[in-house]
Amino acid sequence: MKNVWKDVDAYLTQSLHMVEEAMDEVLEANREAGLPPIDVSASQGKFLYLLAKIKGAKRILEIGTLGGYSTIWMARALPQDGKLITLEYEQKHADVALRNLQRTNVASLVEIKVGPALKLLPLLAAKEEQSFDLIFIDADKGNNPHYLQWALTLSQPGSIIVIDNVVREGHVIDEESKDQSVIGSRALLQQLQSEGRLEATALQTVGIKGYDGFILGVVRDKG
Ligand code: SAM
């Protein structure tokens, strides 16, 4: 990772008061539990929080919890009667996340569902009566095209969908890549071209997490 990206990220997060003891403790708890450091950065977490605020989101869905770092950022934007459902494959990650949600006082707003997201999403679609205002997709990247389909099923016109890690250090342009995450990103972009239900952009990012990027979209009005 380029040092300047990391240093500028540190400068920006400090300047804008995004560094906070409680959130540092969350990252420390993740580290102590042996979770991989693949959570979003503080700036990205704040970005998700701001999106939820701008949207006035009352219902948020996350695919890929890890230790709950991004979950906490988004949950903090919810009103008291809001709800965030987050899906996680690994029981151990979910256990760490629950403790982190409790320590940051957002556990009452969040429900962690454990299992493969592609099994949980149909159950959610069958059970949930209301759609989600914001959906953050951040799990196994090879399944992103499936997750986009479910996100569209579980949303309504005006819902925001964010899909993380689509640029893969630039490998997204490698059409010969055998990497499942790159293949997933390319299939996702192809799907967005043909799909038409999501008005989307893709932004490249650099920072403490290296070089990557995300897709941000809003579900179109039914025309
Ligand atoms: N959103 C988290 C954050 O920023 O703090 C980081 C999520 S991490 C990149 C991806 C998570 O997705 C991991 O905890 C992993 O166990 C989980 N995951 C991977 N495959 C999954 C699947 N098929 N269903 C649900 N979760 C999955």
UniProtKB/TrEMBL annotation:
Its recorded name reads: O-methyltransferase
Q: Which Pfam families match?
A: Methyltransf_3
Q: Which residues form a coiled coil?
A: none
Single Gene Ontology MF annotation: S-adenosylmethionine-dependent methyltransferase activity
Q: Which organism is it from?
A: Fictibacillus macauensis ZFHKF-1
Database matches in PANTHER family = CAFFEOYL-COA O-METHYLTRANSFERASE 3-RELATED (PTHR10509:SF14), O-METHYLTRANSFERASE-RELATED (PTHR10509)
What broad taxonomic lineage does this protein's source fall under?
Answer: Bacteria, Bacillati, Bacillota, Bacilli, Bacillales
- Could you confirm whether the keyword Heme appears in this record? no
One GO term (biological process): methylation
Q: Which UniProt keywords apply?
A: Methyltransferase, S-adenosyl-L-methionine, Transferase
